[in-house]
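Anyone have tokens for DUF4123 domain-containing protein? Sequence:
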Amino acid sequence: MHRNWIDAPSDETKAAAHALLADASAPDARFALLLDRAFVPAEEWRRFVANVPGMPLYGGKYAGDGVEQASPWLCAVPQEGASPGPWLDALFRLCAGRPMLTMLQTRLPLQQLRAHLQQRLEASVAGETFVVRYADTRCLPQVFEVLDPAQRAAFLESIDGWWYVDRAGALQSLPKQSADAVAALPFVLSPEQQQALQTAALPDTLIAYLRERQEVFGHLCGSPSAIHRCVHAVLSGLAKTTQISADAYRQVLAALDVEGLLSDAEATQDA
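Reply: yep, here.
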């Protein structure tokens, strides 16, 4: 069964993407797709990528077991992608409900774009380095939000447009940045920025925990964006922390129940 992490794209989202990619025919414009394949079962991915040549974002940078399967996929937009034809329809079927679709406009050729994006894959806090998973479109706006102006300018350097499908299945773009200086790479984050990132990730962490234990807590129902909005509202009203307390779980479950986003565990077992 196809699991939904985010809302499926609406017809308006698809139309906006069609219009956006139509600009790929302009001589000075290049469009590329960044697809977070971690959300796609292996066989489904093999069928799709057979018709979409490209390259793994992590290629040449990371190595080891499972790296290729975990790596986002970078590919150019096929020329026929600007029309509402089979290729673009297949892309939306693949990405529906999955936080994996990013569209980039840049003058960089694909190989140079990969090297450029690889320079922005890592950040460090107090000497500890971690991978920035900006191909996950749930994480992307959270990362961008915590960066300072110089870091945002560095993140978007040489990128003319950065669009992604958000939690509500809508096409969004990162705002253009102007800064007096561009931050050095890789990014160095402050402890406060790290805490903000960890706090922003708490709703998804809690939702994933509830989904894995639906026989105990009940079945989550309703749209993914509505569930996230409810959980985020509860956690935002509690003391700022990077941990989820038992009381926080109780308040979240109560709020989900009130909003009609949770059915009881017995009904889940009987279904």
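The chain has two domains: 11-189, 193-270.
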